[in-house]
Amino acid sequence: MLPFLLLGTRAEDAAAEGEYRSFLRFTGLAPSDLHRIRVEQEPLPQLRLEDYSGIFLGGSPFNSSDAEVTKSPTQHRVERELRQLLDRVVAADFPFLGACYGVGTLGRHQGAVIDRTFAEPIGPVEITVNDDGAADPLLAGLPLRFDAFVGHKEACSTLPAGAVLLASSASCPVQMFRVKQNLYATQFHPELDVEGLIQRIHIYRHAGYFPPDQAESVIERARDSAVTWPPHILAGFVRRYARA
User: What residues pair up with 155 in beta bridges, in sequence order?
Assistant: First the structure.
């Protein structure tokens, strides 16, 4: 099988390793079948799409809607390199799944409005799958309503032209969309279970996602949740796109 590729942008080693382990666990891939590039550490090489079955883009502390003058040189480089990669990925309709940061990255590349209108605090929300989502093969077998973990400062307030909305939540109307037939973005985190979210709560306690003194209550709310369905999306992506 050709490997899948995970593009990460988390500067904190613990967060980066936790994300990688989560993708390994929920995709069912061996490390040899899930290559990883930490784009925040090194320039993105010229990738040959034909060497991979598909591409995952993990979450990020970067926000595409940040004012350009406030972005670091690293963020500017990462955004430029991802845009250049997406030029080829979209043109080829190459299998792509971006989690959280994927909405801002793929959405902005395709002309979406990405802003802070529909930010959501860290924790579980109920995701509602619409008719197009129910008919999409990547969501096959999932219920029309399921809980997922979110935590984001920006979101898509206007879909790109031609994109297909697949799922929403009460506080964020664009939770999942598809571009062409094989490019997906989720605002929720399909790679997170309770323990994975708790790790991120500790790591990003002072990153502005919630008041730091409320960390324990955020953790308790996560522990009381029943988030089990989102990882099936990752496994389904691998089943659908794995190729020799």
Answer: 115
